Every structure is written in structure tokens, then in C-alpha cells.
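Aim 2, interim progress. The first record below pairs a target sequence with its C-alpha cells.
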Amino acid sequence: MKLQLTCFKSYDVRGQLDIEINEDNFYRIGRAFALVLEAKKVVIGRDCRKSSLKLAESLSRGLNEEGVDVFDIGLCGTEEVYWSTSKFEFDGGMMVTASHNPKNYNGIKFVKSESEPLDPLSEFERLKLLAENSSFENKNIFGKVVDFKDEAKKSYLKKMMRFVDKSPGRPLRLVVNCGNGAAGPTFNLIETELKKYWKDVVFEKMFFDPDGNFPNGVPNPLEEKNRLPTAKRVIETKADLGIAFDGDFDRCFFFDDNGNFISGEYIVGLLAEFYLKKEKSSAIVHDIRILYNIEHAVKSYGGRSVQSRTGHAFIKQNLRKYNAVYGGELSAHHYFRDFAFCDSGMIPWIIILGLLRKEKRQLSDILKVRKQKFASSGEINFTVSNSDQVINNVFSFYRQSALSIDNTDGLSFSFDNWRFNLRKSNTEPLVRLNVESKSGPYLLKKKVSEIINLMNNSIE
């Protein structure tokens, strides 16, 4: 029977339980995934949501009925699926997760062999059509489910340790907020290995027990209310750094020693510098929402700046195309050539904590000059039903005065000493605004207020 599956978004599956997401749909998607990739071996992982186990079992059943062997790595982070897919040469990987969405959501993140994203226009579209059509043949050969948890975790931990600077450094205190998502158990294993080299690092742990009810709020540090517990603990414990993860820990968010949330472009700049000190002239891939600080950092250390559309499919494509050593997004996705060209939420804090161990300055001091030179609004989100109209009104207002307008990813307007990007979310009914200035916080505040007033008038 032909269905219309509204859970398919731009490059993944996401939706509300019993409305867009159910076990039958996941069974269909499992069978379709096997057919699209002509797969024989697929790895599956899941986050800690109450629905994830049953949905993962439905995916496995669909794959098995197409003759595919499923390698189950259980509760894990999305990056563990990515790593296993590449390391063990699976034909594809599937992660059951809704990341930072509310607890009544779920979804799937996909990769094919070597952890490459599915092509949005061919493979992903065909996956959707096959799942909707549901005219599957009965097969005589059934695949099996293999418990692959121990082997996958062992390999992943070994890889994480390759990013650790094992030389001596100063003592540090780190606040870690796992948000009751999937990060806690994996972090504990990483900590055990780290303590072999960083005996003088103290970890202040928060909300480490995975709990799909999210009793301390949905693990989404992009929401300001969710940042307060981490910021407060940093101040209370006089920590040198704070980090917080989203639900499937493919993103890690940073707080400085004063408990201030750090906007993503400053972390991208730090990691770009870290890699360019090792590999001068290497390419650094980044999205175009915020440019000033990142492009300055890349140019200062002799790198090549490669702008990309937002979204893991586009960033990973450019990483491979340019053999870039690192890529970063404002949304706290960080991609590493030495991690199968994939994003990781664990690698960034391992690297930055290693950098701080060698530094006499605190992170707030390191970033102070950058923030003054390149002021940024951070991402401001608007829930709207008429997103096209809102964006068109902004376009009409600024098109005559802008020095340039770029529509690579939403609309980017550039002026003499400031710029902004306005785009629709790929996965949510949101319009996202980012503004930056080369003339300090006063101009930034003025322009943010100007654009917000214009958007609010459009919404009304």
C-alpha cells in the first residue's frame, strides 16, 4: 500500500511518535535501505529514548527480511555508528535518534559505506519512495542479528585516544553535562582511558544517567534555559571549562571559566588553528552563517577557507572533495578527516582540554580579543508559519543597500562592516538568524534589533 511518509526530512528521518514515526514505518525503511544500498551488512545503534529500542528492532527486522546481517551496537552516540561503519567496512549504518528534539520525537540518521552520507537526490529520495511504496518481495534468505557492542566500543575508545595529547600539562577542572542523553556511559569509558595520561584533570559530572524521560530538560544546549545548570556548576566549582552534549552526543557545546556559553564560530576558529599549526595550507570547511572570525583564523595560519552549505551531507562532501583536515558548523557539529570525515562530539573537548592544559591563560582570555574584534549575535531562532514571506520581506528591505547577496544557504547579506545570514531550518519550522560585526557590539546590537523588528512586523 502506498503511503506518504512525512518523517523524511532533507537528509534524515525525524518526527513525532504515533504521528510520523512508528514501528511499521521503520520496518519499511529498513527494507528500503537494504535495497537502495544493496547491503549485506549494516550496523545499527540507538539513543536512550523510550521508543528507540523497539524502533531499532523494527529496522533490524526489515533489514533481516532483505537478507541483511545486522550488527547491533546498542545504546551509543551517532558518531559510534559512523566509526563502526567505516572501521569495520559495513555497507551502511543507521542510528535511531531524534538528537535534541523533545521526548515524543524519534528518527534515523543514515550513512552508507565508508560513512558517506546518502546522496539526497538519488539514494535518499529512492529510499523514501521505496519505503512509501512498500511492495517488497518475500525472500528465502534471512539475515541475522549480531551483538557487536563490545567490539565496536573497544575500537571507538582506541580511536578517541589518538586525539589525546599525552604530554604533561597543568591541572584542570571540567564540568560535564550529559543531559540524561546517551553520552554518560561512553564518557565514563573515555574518562577511564584518559586518566592514564591526565591524572590531574577533575571531572564534575551532571545528569549522566541515560533517561528517555529527560527529567532535567531535553538535552538541547542551544536553548538558553538548558544552559543555566552547566553555567551555574562551572561558577560554583570554579571550573576551567564546561561542556554539554545533545541527546546523541554528536554535538558538544562549550562554556568558558566564567560560565559563559561560547558561540560555535569561536570553537571552529580554535580547532581550525589547532589543525593548521600541524598542516599549513590545509583546507578548512565551514558553513556560511558566520564568517569573520573563522576566515580570519584560517587566513592567519595559512589555511584554505572552503565555504559550504549547512548540513552534514554538504560539509562531508566538501571535506572529501578538498581532503580538508577539519570542518565546523556554527551548530556545534565538528568534522574530522581522521575520523572517517565524520562529526564527533567527543573529539572537540578532548582537543580543547588538551590545549588548555598547555596554556597559562583561561579560555575566556583566549577568546576575549576574538569576540571584541568579531562580535556575533549567536543563532536567533523564530518559529514561523510563513517563513518564505518573512525572508522575502527582509530581502526586499536590504537588497538595495547590500554590497553582496549570496543565496548558497538561505540569504547572506554583506555590508561594509557587518553581515547577516537568514535561512530556514532543514528539520524544524524555524527561521534562523545570525548577525556579525567588525565594528564591535554596539553596531551588532543595533542591526540585530533592526532585523528582529522587521521580521516581527512580517510575522504579524
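The second target in this work package is listed in the same format:
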Amino acid sequence: MLNRLLFQKIDNSPLIIFRIFFGLLVSLECFGAIATGWLKRNIVEPKYTFPFIDFVWLEPLTGPGMYFYFSVMGILGICIALGFKYRFSILAFTILWTGSYLMQKTAYNNHYYLLVLVSSLMCLFPAHTDYSLDVRMGKVQKENSMYGYVKWIIVLQLFIVYTYASIAKLYGDWLDFGMIEILMKSKLDYPLVGNLLQKAWVHKIIGSFGILFDFLVIPALLWKPTRKGAFIASIFFHLFNSIIFQIGIFPYLSLAFTVFFFEPETIRKLFFKRKIPFSLQKTVVPNYKKPFLIVFGIYFLLQLILPIRHYFIKDNVLWTEEGHRMSWRMMLRERSGTGQFKVIRSNGKELFIDIHKFLTIGQQRKVLSYPDFAWQFAQYLKQDLKQEGEELSVYLINSKVSINGRPPAPFIDPNVDLANIPWTPFKHSDWILPSQLDD
């Protein structure tokens, strides 16, 4: 059964067209980051970009370097779509994209993390064996089939993403639709739909549909009788998200994934009418079966564990943020914070920091309401302000945070020197004061 599921040869039309869609979309994402000013706001202009804590050595290139960096990624996306030097192009893109993802957290997005995973998987797939320049140039042998595991790896990855996204919404602020109201307040000035999006009955529809769609879409796409209906619902859902939330390529990438759910013959007739169909029902177990099962077993085990790690960390993740990232917890909270950073020099002199001199507007909001940002900023101040041979202490005083419109509550312990305590990524940081949120 397992051999037939994973190692049966099937038509590769879905993988070929997905490669084309994927390359074009990531190219648009990279060039769009330059054109819209996203790159300038989040990586070029800031004095400090708040990289992932274990990757503080990843610093942006100076001058026009990051524009060149993203342009290279955009060109690599085009090469991926064309199937030109595919193995090099997808590997280089994956490395560069992962670097840009780890380089900054201010504009963190689960979709950027998904791109890291998908591009990494695409490095392993034979997505260039047809309709590619590599084939036309004689660099790669033309094939019209692929192993079944290509489809099922993508399906399982998507099932994990959507299912955990649905489960994460099963909490008070989403179930009473208060979070939907918060999300829609900023859409009031949208033409035609702005006022409609403020209606309570619309919030109930959006909130309920969000849970049900995430939970059911993958099973519905897999089952032939419900596939077309699920596809139509996907179009509506993702176009709504694209228009209302303006979240880049993710809605269109999500739609591109649906090619793996339709019959290969359907995809071939739609996109590759001249392609030779593959109709053999042949199972060929490769000699790398055992390492394959071990590697992907470990990979998917991690994908299952990461989104639930916050259950093993003290306090509420909605408050502490510990275990939030890489967990498919999307659009679940709005945070705002207040407070002031105080630096104490070795001679006892106190210095109160004007964060406007150090941080962009987006970063200012983060350091006052996210604990890891506060800790990292304390580390930055320690290095930036200390004189030779001097040790500084950094405190965040009068720290309060509001979650989803609740009254502000004390957040960071004002007596803890954030500059001189270690970061503990796998357990609760006790300098985050206990939450007052309902479980």
C-alpha cells in the first residue's frame, strides 16, 4: 500500500505547471518588494533589522546591495519558471530567500516561512524534466512522469498548514468574532465594501467560513465529488484575502497548489495539450526508499511538533508570543504596547531612551509589545551605547501591552536587566509578567 502510494509513477503535468506558476510568483514577490517599498522600509532603512535571534550574524548588504539581492532572487524566479539551470536556480533562490526571511522579523509573515519550506521541497523534485529550457538544451532527459510521493508531500504539507490554521482560530477572540471586527476596522475606507465589512453579520460569516474553509478544504479537494466546489470556494477565499488583506503572492500560490489535487490528465489537457500522456500504472521502488522515509519522516514530525510547542511553554501564547512563529497562527491578534527603555551606566548614571532615534515606526510598535523584540533591542542598546570597558544595564519600565483591544496590562518585569540575561528559546522567560488573559 505504502509503496503504491509513494512510488507509483504518475503523470508529472501538475508538477511542471506548478514550477512555472511558482517561479513567476516568487519573481513577482521579489520585484514587488522593491517596487512597493517593502524592502526599503523593512531591510534597507532600519539601523537594525531584528533578525531571528540565532541568526544575528545575518546582516543586510550595505548601499544598493539588498536591491541587487532581491533582483537576483527575482531573476532566479524567472529561471525557475523557464526551467533554466533549474537545480542551481531553485537551490540559489532557496538559500537567498531563507536568508532574507531570517534577516528581519518586523514584517514577519507565515507565508514567507511557507515559501522557505516549499522552495526547499522544490529543490528535491524533478520539476524541470519537461517544458523547460534544460530539456530543450539537452541538459536534462525529458520525462512525462514522476513519483507519487511528489504529490503527497505537497498535499501533506498543505494539510498541516490549513489544519493548524483552523485549530488556532478556535479561541475566544475569534469565536466571538471580536478579532474579525478588529481586522475590519482598518478597512473602513475601502471603496464599495468598506462599510459592509463593519457589519456584525459579515464578521460572523467571515469568522465561521475561515474556520470551516481551513479545516475542510484539503479533504474536499482530495475527494472528487467535492473537488470543484472546493476549488470555487478556494478562488473566492483567496481572492477575498488578496483584495482585503493585500498579502502578496500567498493567495495565488495557494491557488497554484490546487493543480496537485486534480487528475493529471485534466491538468495536461488544460496546460499542455501537446504533451505525451503518461498512462502506465507502474510501481518502481527506488534504492533510496529507506533514507527517503527517514528524512521525510523527521521533516513531517517537526512540522507536526512546531505548531503545538507553545502548549509545552508556560502561560498563554497570545500573551507571551513564545511558540507563535512557524505555527500557522495567522491573523489571531493585534498587539499594542507602551513603556520606556532605561539604560544604567557603570557609574550609576541613568539614560532614558528615545526609541524614535533608533527605530522605524513599525519597529517601535514591536519592541514595546513583543518580548523577543524588547530583549533584542536591549542587546542592541548595550552594544551601541557602551563606552570602552563599560558594562551597561537596560530595563524596560512602565511596560504595558494591550491584546485585541483589552485594557493594557503590565508586561515586562521592570526590575530585570534585559541586556544581561540569556535568551531561552525553548522555555518560558520569567521576565514576561503573568498574563491576565482567559485561557
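Strands lie at 8-11, 145-147, 282-283, 335-344, 350-352, 393-403, 409-410. This observation will shape the mutagenesis plan for the next reporting period.
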